[in-house]
Amino acid sequence: MGERLRDKVAIVTGASRGIGAAIAGFMAEEGAKVVLVSRKIDGLQGVAEEIRSHGGDATPIACHVGHRNQREDMLQQALQAYGKVDVLVNNAATNPHFGPMLGIDEAAWDKTFEVNVKGYFGMIQLVAGHLQHRKAKGSLINVASVVGMMGAPMQGVYAMTKSAVISMTRTLAMELGAAGIRVNAIAPGLIETKFAQVLVDNDEIRSSIVNKTALGRVGQPRDIAGGAVFLASDESDYLTGDVMVIDGGWTIT
Ligand SMILES: NC(=O)c1ccc[n+]([C@@H]2O[C@H](COP(=O)([O-])OP(=O)(O)OC[C@H]3O[C@@H](n4cnc5c(N)ncnc54)[C@H](OP(=O)(O)O)[C@@H]3O)[C@@H](O)[C@H]2O)c1
Predict the structure, then answer these.
(1) 11, 26, 38: which to mutate for ligand 1, most atoms within 8 A of CB?
(2) Ligand 1 centroid vs 135 CA: distance in angstroms?
(3) Do the Cβ atoms of 228 and 27 come closer than 8 Å?
(4) Which of 15, 17, 59, 66 would give a disulfide with 24, using CB separation of 3.0 to 4.6 Å?
């Protein structure tokens, strides 16, 4: 067990699998107490057991991040478990529409913005409010995407929400800096998860991305977790408003 996040409590959304599970696992390895959030408790319990089997401390809490009452209940449960929160990782996101942007229906549009923008913003309002109440420093980390920084055919509305996440990261970093609250984003490239299965399993799409990627491979969830641990730790104490691109060199310009 490492010590880089000793005495810190971190909420990680979308922690039942993929990138969120990897971030929560690495944070627990570095001594953080982790609150695992997603809609379905079953997946979270498996991740919590895995973390505990390695000597870590994890509490699973079911919560749809797009719903204000569920977010508020979740924070209360987290505070009951650990008494405070120092770190938030906004990672739970959705992309129900894969296709040309103008073909999206209203329900898919609403769902994408509800989870990816309102959910992220609502979580930050809650956790920043808690930190300000405690007069405590904190680190808020938004998992965005490289598609939020470029044109993204077939994923256009999802990419818009990721641009919004980058915008909120920069403004909140400026507005919360005086309180000692840092706000940064991570922009992953193509990472092999359930979310990206449609891209990873499509030979044409996968090889077109891998061929442009300096490191010549698709990323794994653990490739993102190290960046999140750094942003959560005091090692990044003078870093805020940054968008850390972790994409194996796919989008080097
Ligand atoms: N994979 C990639 O290539 C890639 C690239 C760039 C950025 N990203 C970003 O990385 C993040 C994680 O993606 P991933 O690839 O790890 O996805 P994933 O494997 O599909 O995991 C998504 C997680 O989010 C949870 N979730 C979904 N909707 C939720 C909601 N409304 N409320 C609470 N939890 C919810 C899911 O659990 P439940 O089903 O239990 O809710 C699951 O734990 C996302 O922000 C994604 O946009 C991924």
Answers:
(1) 38
(2) 31
(3) yes
(4) 15
How far is residue 152's CA from residue 79's CA, in Å, rounded to a whole number?
Answer: 39
158 among known catalytic residues: yes
Q: What domains sit in the chain, N to C, each tagged with a CATH number?
A: 9-245 (3.40.50.720)
> Terminal CA-to-CA distance of the chain, rounded, Å?
38
* Tokens 């991305």 sit on residue: 209
Atom of ligand 1 nearest to the CA of 22: 16
Q: β-strand 87-90 against 9-13: which pairing, if any?
A: parallel
Per-residue pLDDT of the chain (253 residues; tens, 9 = 90+): 899 999 999 999 999 999 999 999 999 999 999 999 999 999 999 999 999 999 999 999 999 999 999 999 999 999 999 999 999 999 999 999 999 999 999 999 999 999 999 999 999 999 999 999 999 999 999 999 999 999 999 999 999 999 999 999 999 999 999 999 999 999 999 999 999 998 999 999 999 999 999 999 999 999 999 999 999 999 999 999 999 999 999 999 8
Phi, psi of 91, rounded to the nearest 5 degrees: -130, -25
Atom of ligand 1 nearest to the CA of 115: 31
110 Cβ contact list (under 8 Å, min separation 6)? none
